TrEMBL record:
Residues 551-677 form the Aconitase A/isopropylmalate dehydratase small subunit swivel domain. This is Iron-responsive element-binding protein 2. The lineage of its organism: Eukaryota, Metazoa, Chordata, Craniata, Vertebrata. InterPro entries: AcnA_IRP_Swivel (IPR044137), Acnase/IPM_dHydase_lsu_aba_1/3 (IPR015931), Acoase/IPM_deHydtase_lsu_aba (IPR001030), Aconitase/3IPM_dehydase_swvl (IPR015928), Aconitase/IRP2 (IPR006249), Aconitase_4Fe-4S_BS (IPR018136), Aconitase_4Fe-4S_dom (IPR036008), AconitaseA/IPMdHydase_ssu_swvl (IPR000573). Its cofactor is [4Fe-4S] cluster. It comes from Mustela putorius furo (European domestic ferret).
Amino acid sequence: QEVEFGRNRERLQFFKWSSRVFKNVAVIPPGTGMAHQVNLEYLSRVVFEEDDLLFPDSVVGTDSHITMVNGLGILGWGVGGIETEAVMLGLPVSLTLPEVVGCELIGSSNPFVTSIDVVLGITKHLRQVGVAGKFVEFFGSGVSQLSIVDRTTIANMCPEYGAVLSFFPVDNVTLRHLEHTGFDKAKLESMETYLKAVKLFRHDQDSSGEPAYSQVIRIHLNSIVASVSGPKRPQDRVAVTDMKRDFQACLNEKVGFKGFQIAAEKQKDNVSIRYEGSEYTLSHGSVVMAAVTSCTNNCNPSVMLAAGLLAKKAVDAGLQVKPYIRTSLSPGSGMVTHYLSSSGVLPYLSKLGFEVVGYGCSTCVGNTAPLSEAVLSAVKQGDLVTCGVLSGNKNFEGRLCDCVRANYLASPPLVVAYAIAGTVNIDFQTEPLGTDATGKSIYLQDIWPTREEVQQTEEERVTPSMFKALKEKMEMGNKRWNSLEAPDSVLFPWDLKSTYIRCPSFFDKLTKEPGALQPIENAHVLLFLGDAVTTDHISPAGSIARSSAAAKYLTNRGLTPREFNSYGARRGNDAVMTRGTFANIKLFNKFLGKPAPKTIHFPSGQTLDVFEAAELYQKEGVPLIILAGKKYGSGNSRDWAAKGPYLLGVKAVLAESYEKIHKDHLIGIGIAPLQFLPGENADSLGLTGRETYSLAFPEELSPGVTLTMKTSTGKVFSVIASFDNDVEVALYKHGGLLNFVARKFS
């Protein structure tokens, strides 16, 4: 916290200023917990009571994992920063009425399956069925087998299978949970009576039958087995029993979503390293990073306690984690640390290297301490496919560290197990984790805690007192926050020398009334992209690379690499964020034919950083577009994945299909989302991306209208203006949601 308040002082002063000058704005100080945890543990009401009226609680948030609260029977989802800002200023959320898919859970899971396995099993099933853009509601006898913490974990992962949200209606399990967390009896009785009166209460046996859904799918919980996901995407599940075979297959396969294409004669290569006075050997599959991270599992005491109990048994058996492995424990809130500590397992996690590093997004967004030079040199020398294992929900290649090529999502106890093993190239059923002091082999089943052990510890340690402690912490704040000085002026006094907070340039050319829609004329293609380009590829995230355009900007202002901080910390500076847009090392631009954060500036023929090319185009007055394939903008909801391209001068994206939230962001910032006709794409139309593109908008633009695109090579083809409703058209005509709101209040 001391580092946080020192390094990010300017940002925190801005937040504190905003809480003073805006009505009804509460700022939760750093070190309290993640937003999603605080939503669950402190802010959630389930049913609101205001002016003698009762109505359901709901949440609109700035992150796709806001959906966690749906596990508590609270309707909520992430719409991104742009739309949320508009909601705060009084505009409603507008959406096309969604289909509601009923997901029936049947039976119960076996005792060796954690809630994370259930999450990943359901994730894979729903992704295969196809629920993108839909609401999912869970029902059936299997729902009662899931605790509230299981439900919130499942709801939290809904962005991974594309649903807008995944909803668990309030039932008796919910009421028992709320009672344990401090809701008074009168409140609970009022809540139950109200929810039953308006038919929002779930019963195991309902005489009136289940609700009518747009579609019903069924999942048998006993069919789910313990698994991990990886090595490059969260949807690629691998049964733990198949892990060794699958990793070997990944080494053999061509480079792609699963493959690394390592020559057969090099798959057994080893590289020796010396670390802290001892000799170690690295090979393909060696674990170099292991993180029990905050966002997915922090709300689930059972899996966190299982990790702690496994650590205790491992230490008691004399097992250790090799010291070169970068281990960390990032709980979602102080409550998690509290129950790990009070249950007596935290010291054992620490002995294995899993020290508490902080509260917030860490390893899975690239916020981690660097690997040792010895490890980095060995990886480079042997061209090794080393591994990271983490209990988060994102594992795209290069996200943890550009030198860690295989990344697996696993439950917290499995993260600890793989760290002890030191490799993912292991069959836990037949190969030991290590040996005890007598030389006896210790297998995973020897130290895996039983469900009864975990539940007993949970019942004894996860108590209402923890929720009470959080409430006290929230209401008291902390000394650093309370003593932090912040401006009192109505308008924020921008510091022109600041590299953290800068007056944004979104409104520089704002007119009081919107003008006519301008055609896109002779636009160059900034990037020619393929399928499944995620917001991680687009948006600035993680650490700032020393060779990047953002690094050059900061260096020119007198900062050293040690002071760069991360893109997340500098999101209040659009100059940094614009330079970090499309700066992902795994961005595959078809112009180059290889992954690199670069593109070609066609008028000069130069290969440049994406920002530098865009800057040249802007100086020349040339508009830009992006060509893409299917599912453009999938992954996390990131408003900078739209703001960044807008500030680079991108006027339109032409893709085969979009992730709904990202498309909303594009419209919200004033970028036209264009779509190829069904069955068509850049390849089928013979587009190279080297031609220029022109498009005119009709005066009466309407949702889904077909427009004519012309190229400098004489090709003419039709595209769809991918607006879903009149509200989106109106926002686009204003140049985006921010302009619309600004004009409304001007």
